[in-house]
Amino acid sequence: MTAFTYREGALHAEDVALARIAAEVGTPVYVYATSAMEAQYDALVGALAGLDALVCYAVKANSNLAVIRTFARRGAGADVVSEGELRRALAAGVPASKIIFSGIGKTEAEMEFALRAGIGQFNVESEPEMIALSRIATRLGLVATVALRINPDVDAGSHAKITTGRKENKFGIDLAHAADVFRRGAALPGLAVRGLAVHIGSQLLDVAPFRAAFDVVGTLARALRNGGHPIDRLDFGGGIGITYRDEPLPDLALYAAIAREAADGLGCRLVFEPGRFLVGNAGVLLTRVLYVKDGVSQRFVIVDAAMNDLIRPTLYDAYHGIDPVLAPAPGAPLDPVDVVGPVCETGDLFAAQHVLPPVAAGALLVIRSAGAYGAVMASEYNSRPLVPEVLVKGGHYAVVRPRPTYESMLGLDRMPDWLGP
Q1: 344, 360, 410, 415: which is the annotated catalytic residue?
Q2: Which residue in 248, 254, 169, 261 sits closest to 215, CA to CA?
Q3: pLDDT tens digit sequence for 133-145
């Protein structure tokens, strides 16, 4: 399903006209549809029915408190990779017992905060990290529940910058050493090493890499069980992809069957950490055309959104569909244009030679599939205010993060004494 549809020639988010949001909030602005998020979550939970499974939303995909709470109210936990994300999950109402702390570079301060908060699980990615966690937990008189993240040397087949399960990647513990590291961790004070974790990358559309990775984890879990270790949880990570253009979606039923097969007979709780899958197509970036510029050989459509608002096309050469908010007239000519932003970088490009109907200054466009890794990766480059975020539910919308004022931006800086007031 899609929550963004044309009604009487105008694009809506659920029952709210995007033109209304643009007029009342301004552009550029991120718009998220509650129904699309809930539908994705329910589809995954439905596929996992019959398994002892916990779905933990990967906060890094979109960390807005209202987005996190939308999933928390449906029963989701949270997968976090920093103290800031942990604080967001707690503030949004996720029970600490349902929070998984992942990431290869947890600081000692972050570990202490997470231990005091009583989170459900640390996904440990190296032996030095495990030793540090043991030391901190022992000092605090607490016990950290640990799953060891394995690097299974499985190529997810996605973009090199979002692949995380190959042996040359920085993530996880090499499979050849994993059993020994697990045994050493199990002997450390302050730790309850109870599980294994894996995450091989993002935007996976083929289930074959999942099968390979899950099988590695299941096989290792059985070997450790046979050695007397009380494995009671397997964290299968996230990575399920979405459609950006016309990609076929992974079969959720097959994905669940692969997880069920890998864990067969172990009686473990299974954890899944989707992010992009839940929010990617639940959001758009709404932007207004500033100018249409004809160059020597191509036409530029210059919009008020920029690479600092949505960096994925610049960073990953990522494709995002772009459409006018007002549906074109039947038979309107379609021509290739470059859709670009106002930032002083040649890389400030949303789409090259993207086919659009004629548009003029003032027209509204939507950049689709922008609910994941959009606002969370935004910056104030060129001293541009961060983009506001809007959440829609039915015929209502709310600004869930306002646009900062220039005064608030400038107020973050401090002038040293030697430069005067």
Answers
A1: 344
A2: 261
A3: 999 999 999 999 9
